[in-house]
């Protein structure tokens, strides 16, 4: 789904963490442009808690272009509870996605940036606008912000960090062409 007029991108832990670890956080900022970038407090907590083991997360926490939003309104808490019932697994897995989806759902024209397939399916049924990481990268190519070789390098670096993508190393260009995304 292409979004022309969004008020904010609401990002999940996964894309932020992997872009930071792969040294591509600045490129992510450039892709998102001048639109406000938000993380819910639960994502901020995941990032902060992970800093002791993953030093690259400090760059995300200190990024001045990312604002933290507390989920505290009745609407946000109700949406969070809805997603929590459907997505949270053992060890509180997917709690960040719940926060991202709740925040995006309760904001006008917000776009949730998540890659988890089940989270995307659940949120889409509730009318949340979703962008996956690869969608953002392909859109950046179409807008002439990035090139196919650069996105291929980014994708390869993300995969070195165990980021799951629907192709193997060196496979972005072919995949994007097959999908009609560039």
TrEMBL record:
Top-level taxon in the UniProt lineage: Bacteria
Database matches in InterPro entries: PIN-like_prokaryotic (IPR021799)
Protein known as: Putative nucleic acid-binding protein
Classification of source organism: Bacteria, Bacillati, Actinomycetota, Actinomycetes, Jiangellales
């Amino acid at each position: 789904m292409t979004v022309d007029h969004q008020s904010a991108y609401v990002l999940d832990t996964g894309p932020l963490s992997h872009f930071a670890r792969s040294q591509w956080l600045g490129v992510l900022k450039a892709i998102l442009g001048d639109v406000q970038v938000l993380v819910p407090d639960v994502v901020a907590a995941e990032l902060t808690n992970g800093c002791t083991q993953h030093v690259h997360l400090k760059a995300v926490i200190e990024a001045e272009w990312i604002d933290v939003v507390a989920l505290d309104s009745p609407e946000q808490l109700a949406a969070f509870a809805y997603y929590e019932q459907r997505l949270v697994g053992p060890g509180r897995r997917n709690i960040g996605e719940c926060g991202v989806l709740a925040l995006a759902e309760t904001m006008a024209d917000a776009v949730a940036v998540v890659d988890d397939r089940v989270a995307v399916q659940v949120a889409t049924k509730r009318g949340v606008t979703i962008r996956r990481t690869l969608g953002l990268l392909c859109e950046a190519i179409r807008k002439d912000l990035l090139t196919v070789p650069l996105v291929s390098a980014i994708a390869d670096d993300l995969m070195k960090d165990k980021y799951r993508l629907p192709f193997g190393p060196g496979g972005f260009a072919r995949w994007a062409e097959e999908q009609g995304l560039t």
